[in-house]
Design brief:
Radius of gyration: 18 Å
Number of strands: 10
CATH topology: Rossmann fold
Helix content: 25-40%
CATH class: Alpha Beta
Structural class: alpha/beta
CATH superfamily: Thiamin diphosphate (ThDP)-binding fold, Pyr/PP domains
Distance between the termini: 17 Å
Length: about 300
């Protein structure tokens, strides 16, 4: 299992340029910065059509973009090529949004996980297709309004609960799967550092709130991310060789009500709808507590 690593233990070198075209308060850019610093100069980075090209001004030696559904296949090709040439020093890493991970890219992700391909997939999860206007994805939380699930006579926002992708990936019996949050960088750094030398398929899904799509003041990106963790909307855990371990266990979860209503995408929800989400969170948290320290499958 991983251990948290303080920020001051990282090298001072920066790979992401300070000036880029990311939105104010973009948590995805925090994800990219931390990934680049932990993996270092020997990283071949994969992106697809997502917000990544906006904040991904990363000065590693190699970067490749790919069609939306192609990340898994492209990273497979790189990983096998480096294995063939005995370049064990190079790490193949994807920094991909939730649309290119949970939806359009899922077939490539699942296939690569089933084959246990040797690369690390990091999903910065801002819960929608933010780069193309904020359309819903399967990672969007229930009742959230998006451009394709607007509030209207026949719509209360997204109808479905968020896809439990990290657990789905873990069910492929891959060496390492984890969740992380920009609000807990030491935990994220520790998980990246643990995953870096592991051989085989590794996956980390990181909560990356989007002020533009979620409609909150950009200064509060990290606060929103922290509140999501403390309320159970975004539990932190890892699955190592099939064993699940919670990374943070609050003594008591914060009610989801205030967390949701701090975001403009949830300002319309009723008390009954809040109770629906609270029930889902409580049920999910109870399952994770039951699995904590034991096999996930």
């Amino acid at each position: 299992m991983s251990k948290p690593i303080p920020l001051n233990k990282l090298d001072d070198v920066e790979f992401i340029t300070p000036a880029n075209s990311a939105c104010q308060g973009c948590a995805g850019s925090i994800v990219a910065r931390i990934v680049a610093k932990v993996i270092g100069k020997d990283m071949v980075r994969q992106e697809v059509a997502c917000c990544g090209p906006a904040f991904g001004n990363i000065n590693q030696p190699a970067f490749y973009g790919e069609i939306f559904e192609g990340a898994g296949a492209m990273m497979t090709g790189f990983a096998r090529a480096f294995k063939r040439t005995e370049r064990d020093d190079i790490r193949v890493v994807g920094i991909v949004g939730d649309g290119g991970t949970t939806d359009i890219g899922f077939q490539g992700l699942s296939a690569a996980a089933e084959r246990d391909e040797d690369f690390l997939w990091v999903c910065y999860d801002n819960e929608a297709y933010m780069n193309t206007g904020g359309q819903r994805s399967s990672a969007t939380t229930k009742y959230a309004t998006t451009t394709t699930t607007p509030l209207g006579e026949f719509s209360r926002g997204k109808k479905e609960q968020k896809k439990p992708l990290p657990l789905l990936v873990a069910m492929h019996r891959v060496p390492y799967t984890a969740t992380a949050s920009v609000a807990y960088p030491e935990d994220f750094i520790g998980k990246l550092s643990y995953a870096k030398p592991v051989k085989g398929f590794r996956f980390i899904q990181v909560s990356a709130p989007c002020p533009t799509g979620w409609r909150f003041d950009p200064r509060y990106s990290v606060k929103v991310a922290k509140d999501m963790v403390l309320s159970g909307l975004w539990p932190l855990y890892e699955v190592t060789e099939g064993t699940l371990k919670l990374s943070l266990k609050p003594k008591e979860l914060k009610p989801v009500k205030d967390v949701l209503r701090s975001q403009g995408r949830f300002r319309h929800i009723t008390d009954d709808e809040v109770d629906d989400i609270q029930g889902w969170v409580d049920e999910n948290w109870a399952r994770l507590l039951e699995k904590d320290g034991g096999p996930v499958f």
